[in-house]
Amino acid sequence: MTCSRACRVGLGWVLGAHMLHATAAEASTAPSTFSTYFNHRPDASFVEPHRGTQREGDNFEQVIVQRVAAARTRIDVAVMGITLPHIAQALAQAARRGVQVRVVMDNSFRRNWAALTPDEVASLSDADKEVWAEVDSLVDVDGDGEASDAELAANDVATILARAGIPVIDDTEDGSKGSGLMHHKFAVFDGEVVLTGSANWTHSGFFGDIGRPASRGNAENLVEVRYAEVAKAYAQEFALLWGDGPGGLRNSRFGIAKGARAALGISTPEGLVQLQFGPFSASKPLASTTIGLIDAVLKTAVSRIDLGAFVLTDATLTDTMGQLAAKGLTVRGMFDQGYIDNDFSATLDMWGVRLLDAGCALKPQLRPWAVTPMAIGYPVLPEGDKLHHKVAVVDDRIVVAGSMNWSAEALRSNDENVLIVHSPAVAAAFRQELDRLHASAVYGPSPALRARAIQDAQRCANTR
């Protein structure tokens, strides 16, 4: 699991217009507070460990494995799902050398995929069948249709963690059927370092769909913060999820049971970090929530906002950006193709699309912008890959990142984190990623969506 050349990862610092990248090994000892990683960045390359494909990007798996290997006392992992055996093996090795390792997942991922019968596989949802197929491909290396004990011991995440004695819980540990989603993607190392970002720790997320040779993984980001006070905040979130661990007093807390927490502001040597954990009940004022925090940051924009988001449906954020666009600020946005034309996507507002109901009134979820930016669209990605970022870059000086999609479900029911970094250096790295996505962009509403809007306008014009 090595790169064909040194895998250039991390953002050390910016000197004038020149960004200096460190190797994955150097990033762990670099003096900077932040490192950023992108699995499609064009100025780095590596060989995929499972398919042997030479490709562009940062090797997220290698970054995580090296950080796990450097841990001395404790590793706390809260990630929606893990399917990658090399990460599980690294965690197992850490546990065997005396590091305390604890893992929290979403209940939809925490199952013994390799032990499912054909009938059980047939009853899975389409999304779960994709996860099963990924695990099956990674575990059943010889492809004989059966997972041998040796294959399970080497490649099955559930087996590897269990045999190493690593405790694992999910969001049913509190006695419920689970929160909306345990959607975090973070790990805390020795109470000093945090890795977080947009990516689940899966092959499809990091590297691509195993059954699609052209797939290269979802467009994702990973941020490492080396600052104890930030790590402490994430460790406190983990402690709420963990309670007293598996089979205990059911005192784990997920979803809104964790209670509302105020946003934190932490000064680091390289810039302010703001962070907040969700979700929030509908009774909480929006200004005190993660959406309120993001909205407050967007409102500080004086020249431009660059977005890269899997999905955007929140009207508060859309209205704020629409008002800024009307004042002349530049707003650019890249969104996932699978959601961009959805009736509830905020991209319809950005495009000024007007869909009318049977009574010729504007559909209630729509709030079309008065000024419609040109650069709103989706990047052309290989089949199966998604734009999975949850990112905004404000004035090339502030980055909004973390696990949270900008949607009502994420706000009200999912376990999420929002990380905001005030750093031109970090902003430059994210801006480079968004510029890369714009290079293959398709802008504007699809022909089908345009046709719907025209038909609605003609229908209603004929009834007046």
Describe the structure.
The protein has about 475 residues and is an alpha+beta fold. It has 2 domains: about 10-240, Endonuclease Chain A (Endonuclease, Chain A); about 265-460, 2-Layer Sandwich (Endonuclease, Chain A). About 30% of the residues lie in helices and about 25% in strands. The protein contains 15 helices and 20 strands. The strands form 4 sheets. The protein has a 9-stranded mixed beta sheet with strand order 12-13-19-18-17-14-15-16-20, sandwiched between helices. Helix 10 (about 290-300) runs parallel beside helix 11 (about 315-325). The longest helix is centred in the C-terminal third of the chain and has 16 residues, at about 445-460. The radius of gyration is 22 Å and the shape is globular. The protein starts with 7 loop residues before the first strand and ends with a helix. The model is unreliable at about 1-30 (pLDDT under 50).
What is this structure's SSE topology?
Blueprint: E1 8-15, E2 18-23, H1 24-27, E3 34-38, E4 45-47, E5 54-56, H2 60-70, E6 74-79, H3 85-96, E7 100-105, H4 118-122, H5 126-139, H6 149-155, H7 157-163, E8 168-170, E9 185-189, E10 193-197, H8 203-206, E11 221-226, H9 228-242, E12 264-268, E13 271-278, H10 290-298, E14 304-309, H11 315-326, E15 330-335, H12 347-351, E16 376-379, E17 390-394, E18 398-402, H13 408-412, E19 416-422, H14 424-438, E20 441-443, H15 447-462
Parallel strand pairs: 6-7, 7-8, 14-15, 15-16
Antiparallel strand pairs: 1-2, 3-11, 4-5, 6-9, 9-10, 10-11, 12-13, 13-19, 14-17, 16-20, 17-18, 18-19
Helix pairs in contact: 2-3, 3-7, 6-7, 10-11
